[in-house]
Amino acid sequence: MKLKVWGARGSIPAPGPETMIYGGNTSCIEVTLSDDSKLILDAGTGIRQLGMAMTAADQPVNILLTHLHMDHIQGFMFFGPVFSPESEITVWGPASPEASLRDRIARYISAPLAPVEVRELPSLLTFHEADALEWNIGPARVRAQAVNHRGPTLGYRIEDNGTVLTYIPDHEPGLGAPLASVEDEWISGFDLARDATLLVHDCQYTDTEYQNHLGWGHCPVSDALDFVRRTNPERVLLFHHDPLHSDDFLDGLGNDASTRWQELGGAADEILMAKERLELDLDQLPAPQAVGAAAGNGQRPRSRA
Ligand SMILES: [Zn+2]
Ligand SMILES: [Zn+2]
């Protein structure tokens, strides 16, 4: 399984000279499965350039939406394949008692916010509510589960040929009770992330910033690391960067996360920062480096306590 990041930003696009390295586009990840078919995780603004890079061989298209906040759907109307009659596109996303997935997306793709209506899009578009569901897409087994965020939100676990990718871009698992005091089965997203090859996870705030953003639906560094410690993935890709965070700031945030992880006994290269256009082959990840000297016990920082 391979992954390419087309947008790693949260909340709103943040283009500009100060975000050239991590990128300004919002959530979108391209996943290439073992049979070379593609899955797309979220349709933030990054999906526009992904659409430009796709060919007829990439049909049919499956898009897994975690939720319908704008930073996860804003690129959909600018995703080229949507305007091709040859395209067959299936959109998966969370159910809501309020309205169907199609009707909720149509609130954005309709007047006065858009020049077209969903029914006018020439591609063959299908919408599926994916709540608490497990199903196959090509060679992959996909599991969707509700996670803690603002409004109906899913995380996804994608398993293909023994490799597991977990995607939880918007997540506040520590809201209400400190993660350290919660049993495994009560931690939001636990089963999705457990022992994954790669976990793509929210790390929007520093711990200090989080004090003013409790309940906003996102993770501070400490909770992201606690969630990793509890769920035991081989690698984590910290994702959903705050629009206020410049490249320099994110370098610092990444170094801080990595240092704290090593102090817990982990290896520096287990913690990765998501950057636009970053590509990872999950079947070819190098073995983690030696664990951090700070903890010195030779053990990875795992605890299910
Ligand atoms: Zn978001
Ligand atoms: Zn959100």
Short description:
This protein is α/β, with parallel strands linked by helices and about 300 residues long. About 15% of the residues lie in helices and about 25% in strands. It has a single domain (about 1-280), classed as 4-Layer Sandwich (Metallo-beta-lactamase, Chain A).
Keywords:
305 residues, alpha/beta, Metallo-beta-lactamase, Chain A, 7-stranded mixed β-sheet, 7 helices, globular, binds zinc ion
Return the CATH class: Alpha Beta
Query: Helix coverage percent of residues?
Result: 10-25%
Write down how many β-strands occur, each being a DSSP E stretch of 2 or more residues.
14
* Major β-sheet strand ordering: 6-5-4-3-2-1-14
The dominant shape is globular
Write the element-wise H/E pattern from the N-terminal end onward.
Answer: EEEHEHEHEEEEEHEHHEHEE
User: Number of helical segments?
Assistant: 7
Characterize the main sheet.
Answer: 7 strands, mixed
Under CATH, the homologous superfamily reads: Ribonuclease Z/Hydroxyacylglutathione hydrolase-like
Structural class: alpha/beta
Low-confidence stretches: 292-298
Number of domains: 1
According to CATH, what is the topology? Metallo-beta-lactamase, Chain A
Bound molecules: zinc ion
